[in-house]
Design a protein that fits this description.
By secondary structure, the protein is an alpha/beta fold. It is built from eight helices and eight strands.
Length: 219
């Protein structure tokens, strides 16, 4: 039986001139988590927001925080992410030469540990860590900007990752981020995704709560 689909709206697409109103809608919706992208302008070609803003977000959000660090040396921010009250700390495979150590440190801090793969990084690179992580995030766009077009090859990667998880007995969830909307979501769910990160599809919708309901209840 297929597990429940989890929805993690991406804060990157929120209206920061009216942030409390957007977060109130997320709190009132069927969203499961709140996805937060931290960008440094080095690992990815953009800068998002820092911890003074995120402390405000954490105070307002009633949803568990799904924190995705698109930065170099993410291990240096484990304490700051933990202090936000984050449920999940997600780091990029490509940014962590000592990934196993970082995953251990995240778990020792009391958070769940996630690992993200860029579009050109094969799923096979996770063979030696998959049993240690709580989630794998597959980027279905190149990281750094919101509103990009979904990369169709991601569907193949989701299927490959599902096979790896099954073969190893891992309990890792599969999360997908980038170009997720009402059109791409059904194929991702069919391929084996567990968690959908939706940015513009949610925050730019006329009915945010209704759109989350539709994503949450897709078959």
């Amino acid at each position: 039986m297929k597990n429940e689909i989890l929805i993690s709206p991406s804060l990157l697409s929120a209206d920061f001139g009216n942030l409390k109103a957007d977060l109130d809608k997320i709190n009132a919706s069927e969203a499961d988590w709140l996805h937060i992208d931290i960008m440094d302008g080095v690992f990815v070609p953009n800068i998002s927001f820092g911890f003074p803003v995120l402390k405000y977000v954490a105070e307002l959000s009633k949803k568990p925080l799904d924190v995705h660090l698109m930065i170099v040396q993410p291990e240096k921010l484990i304490r700051e992410v933990k202090d936000l009250g984050a449920m999940m700390m997600n780091v990029h495979f490509e940014a962590c030469p000592h990934l196993h150590r970082v995953v251990q440190q995240i778990r020792e801090a009391g958070m769940k540990a996630g690992v993200t793969l860029n579009p050109a990084t094969p799923v096979s690179m996770l063979a030696d860590i998959i049993e240690e992580v709580d989630m794998v995030l597959l980027m279905s766009v190149n990281p750094g900007f919101g509103g990009q077009k979904f990369i169709p090859h991601t569907l193949k990667k989701v299927r490959e990752l599902r096979k790896l998880i099954t073969a190893t007995g891992s309990h890792a969830l599969i999360e997908v981020d980038g170009g997720v909307n009402l059109q791409t979501a059904p194929s991702l769910i069919e391929a084996g995704a567990d968690v959908l990160v939706a940015g513009n599809a949610v925050f730019k919708a006329d009915d945010m709560i209704g759109t989350i309901h539709q994503l949450k209840n897709m078959k």
